[in-house]
Amino acid sequence: MVWAFFLFTDEEIILFAKGKLFYGHEKFGSHFINVENTNGFNFSVWAPNAAAVCVIGEFNGWKKNLHPLYVRLDKSGI
């Protein structure tokens, strides 16, 4: 699965919490992906105290509610 590269494993969450995820640039931010022959982007951010995070831009008419990011259930802030 190509898209799995961008997802965080349990081990990576632990390393990140300890400040030892030395390849965070490969996980956070925006990355081009292809899932089942559909092109798109995966976006991850660390925002532990944010009330909401959305990805906005010209691609969605600058509408903030069209592409919300969801809070992980592991309480990592990612």
Care to describe what's here?
- The two termini are 21 Å apart.
- The chain has one domain (2-60).
- The chain is 10% helix and 18% strand.
- It is of the alpha+beta class and 78 residues long.
* Number of β-strand runs: 2
Rg estimate, integer Å: 13 Å
Distance between the termini: 21 Å
**Runs with pLDDT <50, length 5+?**
none
Order of helices and strands: HEE
Question: Which descriptor suits the 3D outline?
Answer: globular
**Domain tally:** 1
Number of helices: 1
What is the percentage of strand-forming residues? 15-25%
Reported for the largest beta sheet, the result is: 2 strands, antiparallel
- Helix/strand class: alpha+beta
With strands numbered from the N-terminus, the spatial order across the biggest sheet is 1-2
**What is the average per-residue confidence, as pLDDT, rounded to a whole number?**
87
Level of helix content? 10-25%
Concise structural overview:
The chain is an alpha+beta fold and 78 residues long. The protein has one helix at 10-17, and strands at residues 29-35, 38-44. A hairpin with a 2-residue loop joins strand 1 (29-35) and strand 2 (38-44).
Properties at a glance:
78 residues, alpha+beta, two-stranded antiparallel sheet, 1 helix, 2 strands, 10% helix, 18% strand
